[in-house]
Design goal:
The structure holds 2 protein chains of 2 kinds. Chain A is mainly β. Chain A is built from 1 helix and 17 strands. Classes of the chains: A mainly beta, B alpha+beta.
Amino acid sequence: MTKYGSDDVFLLFSGFDISGDTFELQQVKEALLEATHGFGDAWEEQSAVGVKTGGVNHRSFYDDATGATNEALFGGMGFNRPMLAGLEGNAQGKKCIAFNPMQRNYVRSPARGELHKVSAEYLSHQRISEAEIIQSLAAQTAAGAGSDGSLDNGAQSTSGGTAYLEITALDLDGYTSVTIQLEESSDNGAGDPWTQVGSAFTAATARGGARIEISGTIERYTRATVTWNGAGTSPSVTYIVALERD
Amino acid sequence: MTSERRTARTAKRYRVLKPMVLNDGTAWAEGDEVTTRELKADVLERLVERGAIEEVSS
């Protein structure tokens, strides 16, 4: 058993990394219930109606820098934006909450004698994944496999899953786009070639987030790779890939 | 007929649908062909199931 603290927390959505400006984060998952007690019952009774929901709330400092909280939050209401919220650290194999929520509000709360604070609330849209980090958030310049290499799941899984990508910084330096790919192999690429899992993440030209649903078998080993499209000189991409196997 | 020629005649051919690469650097691009002489039969079956290759009818 391992305990974790605030230095293990990160918050990414749509390519914005607002971890450094954020000091409170609340992740909620819940089942919708209906009271089913009736006349003659002395205690409440509940039944699950079969729908799960949840969301994320956070409080952060107001920061008007490019890519910081104000830019990240002021235009996001009413949109679905892929989010990764980590509690166990930015490392391969660690779990994070990953989903495609809709931002409900953006609250700016200046107060006398304090730095300005902001908050936002996101409600779940579709599944809230307990995803595993395949490639931790890191900068990469070269094409090829990510710095974390492959992750061994111990066995293949057969019920599909959901993959998430966040690109928090991108300098194409002449290249037209970058493609981040999730790949799979049954033997870590020794005799079974690495191939793309499911459909591809769309090639990126700027920071952003993405989510893809995968059906069927996912092989035992997975990894992330970078492909630079076009021609250029010294590109760099900072990205993270996470996968939930169903 | 030598065993090599017999193998050549019976080797199944597959068209690559998704780029593939081994750790030793051997790579196949979309549209390439791969046969049982290059990859084991069970690996090819897995790749078909993953939608990475499809058998080419002769």
